[in-house]
Amino acid sequence: MSERDIDLTAFLASLKDVLASRTDGNADAMVGRVYEKLQDIGEASEADGHLLPVCEYLTPAMDVIAQEGHPLRELAGRLHAVLPRLVWRARPGPAPNASADFAESHANAMIVGPGGVEGRRDLWIGISLLAPGTRYPDHDHAPPEVYLVLSPGRFLQGGGEWFSPGIGGVFYNPPGILHAMAADEDAPLLALWLLDVR
Fold first, then answer.
1. 8 Å CB contact between 155 and 42
2. Cα–Cα dist 181/136, whole Å
3. What is the pTM of this model?
4. Could you tell me which residues come within 8 angstroms of residue 113 by beta carbon, excluding any fewer than 6 positions away?
5. Which pLDDT tens digit goes with each residue over 126-168?
6. Dihedrals φ, ψ of 66, to 5°?
7. Distance (Å, rounded) from C-alpha 31 to C-alpha 156?
């Protein structure tokens, strides 16, 4: 059995600790399934990281959680260690209800999953970045999903109202639910997400 990348191992452990203190119900059960799968190690990627211009907002988006004494500071440090390995991409395809400049004002990267630091297909752990004032398109997918929000921003689920989980907020998207996110006008949005692809 191969060994998992040391920086990725530390990031996954820190993420697990954060989620354990902030999830319940469906989110807790889904995170448990994801971490059970992670006991088997996927294929290590040799790819070099790749940034998009919008990635200039990464540091500002992490400023608050990187501060001394913040409850997510350790996670911020562990995430920072894996950032150089990430391949940032723009979302392909149609973008219903997205902001006009969406194509150049967002980026997603896979940490664990297809094209990630650890390649695999049974689960995805990724990260999304939106420039200030950017709205992500309405979208849905079959796998359930858990978000961990790392900066200010707003989220939408189904036919509900926009809500702000706050920095460190965690919430669950049931399978197939229509959802979206948006950055505030004066700050970028950064969020981690986990999908139990099954």
1. no
2. 5
3. 0.97
4. 119, 120, 121, 123, 124, 125, 126, 195, 197
5. 999 999 999 999 999 999 999 999 999 999 999 899 999 999 9
6. -85, -5
7. 21
